[in-house]
Amino acid sequence: MNEKDIFPIIGINDLYEDHLDHMSLLRHNVNGKEVIDTPHKHDFFLIFLVLKGGGVHTIDFTDYEVRDNTLFFLAPGQVHKWKLNKNTEGFQFVFSGSFAEKLQRLHIHQHIFAENPMLELSEAETNELAGELIRIEEELITRDALSDMILADRLRIVLLLVERLQKKYAEERCVHPQGRIVLEFKSLIEKYFKEHCSVQFYADHLHITANYLNTICKKQLKQTAGEQIRNRIILEARRLLAVTPLSVKEIAYGLGFSDVAYFSRFFKKSEGMTPGMFRVHARKM
Description:
This protein is an alpha+beta fold and 285 residues long. Helices cover 54% and strands 20% of the residues. The protein has helices spanning 3-6, 12-15, 28-31, 97-101, 110-115, 123-142, 147-173, 177-192, 199-206, 210-221, 225-243, 248-254, 260-271, 275-284; strands spanning 9-10, 23-27, 35-42, 44-52, 55-59, 62-66, 70-74, 79-84, 89-96, 118-120. Strands 1-3-8-5-6 form a five-stranded mixed sheet. The chain has a five-stranded antiparallel sheet with strand order 2-9-4-7-10. Helix 8 packs across helix 9, helix 8 crosses helix 10 (210-221) and helix 9 packs across helix 10. The longest helix has 27 residues, at 147-173. The chain starts with a helix and ends with a helix.
């Protein structure tokens, strides 16, 4: 069995029998799996709204407790698995990136969910989002000549509601003006980390000095700006090592390293093991 067989990239067609090419929705307690114990990644976006239940959802090697009124948002490329209680109820809503990009809503605060892909919602927020998902569910059943346009509008509403929740979360954490600079810095990292690892590059985009950016990051994040950039590179390396057949050399070059040996030292300094050792460890897990 080759690496692609062990760690496939899963598409909508692989998981959802009743689907359009670009979208699907199911009731977790009816069709969802309680245990997904093999780490994998998707080529689509996933919104998992938990109405009630419990368990553990592991995303990018971090465990998150599943509780009532929680929202999980996964982008393509993130690695996840879960072990959920039998009584867990909610919605799994998936849609392709190409379909959603036409709506121009996915650039907003993606880095927030990349760092913390779970939000705790109020009951009212959960009910509002669930109501929109039910409307999508009904439209997916109807499927007439106007369904694509209607589904696009309903997806836009869902993304706007999620955006509102993201902004609320961000504002609660970053009410200070420096916090807003941190949010913008993290957004830039998400966009450029494969090409640029210089703090000066990001400081220039933020129209501040590199020293000031470091000062803000130390105060707000307890890490330097450079550590934030390196952490994002390491996360991507871990994802690629865990769930793709790419060689260490290919991963290194893809992340902007011209020297594979230097990439290996860089990775080992952070993780305490070589990229090859991490890959073996991830598969055993």
